[in-house]
Amino acid sequence: MEKIRYLQKQDQEFWRQLDKHLPETEFQKKVRDKQAYVFLKDDRLVGIFRYNLFWDQIPFGTMLFIAREFQGRGYGTKLMEYWEKQMRMQGYGMVLVSTQADESAQHFYRKLGYHDCGGLMLTCPGYEQPMELFLAKPIRELAADDLSRKTAGV
User: Fold this and answer.
1) Pick from 83, 93, 95: which is nearest to 137 by CA?
2) pLDDT by 10s per residue, the chain, length 154
3) SS3 17
4) Which of 12, 21, 112, 122 is the most exposed place for a label (fewest CB within 10 A)?
5) What is the spatial distance between Cα 139 and Cα 53, in angstroms, rounded to a whole number?
6) What are φ and ψ of residue 73, in 5° steps?
7) From CA 61, how far away is CA 110, in angstroms rounded?
8) Do 2 and 78 contact (CB within 8 A), yes or no?
9) Calpha distance 17→140 (Å, rounded)
């Protein structure tokens, strides 16, 4: 049986195995703010997903990882589809993700309907990395009122 649920404090040991970038204080915020999910298969944790809000208004997926022994079974796709549905139900119209340009995740996101929307080059000493590629996906149609406000600059 497959299940996706919000991250809980007791998931921390498993989470740390897959996500070594999230500081402890941010882990606690993800639990508190319900901005992270875990994927379970037969009650066994197999994957993680976390997000935040870009510009405080656009859901931005910041980490998707499926444990190596469970990769290639569609669990990442299911996590992404679940997150997109949750964001749509909360009223958001688009979502963002990013990956380094030299990583293969960009192909995974494009297969899910994401399109390239920009990049970021970090060249400051100590922070250098390959270009970060941003991808976007609309998750609901804009209503006529939304369109007229956008064209009027409101």
Assistant:
1) 95
2) 999 999 999 999 999 999 999 999 999 999 999 999 999 999 999 999 999 999 999 999 999 999 999 999 999 999 999 999 999 999 999 999 999 999 999 999 999 999 999 999 999 999 999 999 999 999 987 655 554 445 455 4
3) helix
4) 21
5) 15
6) -115, 5
7) 14
8) yes
9) 34
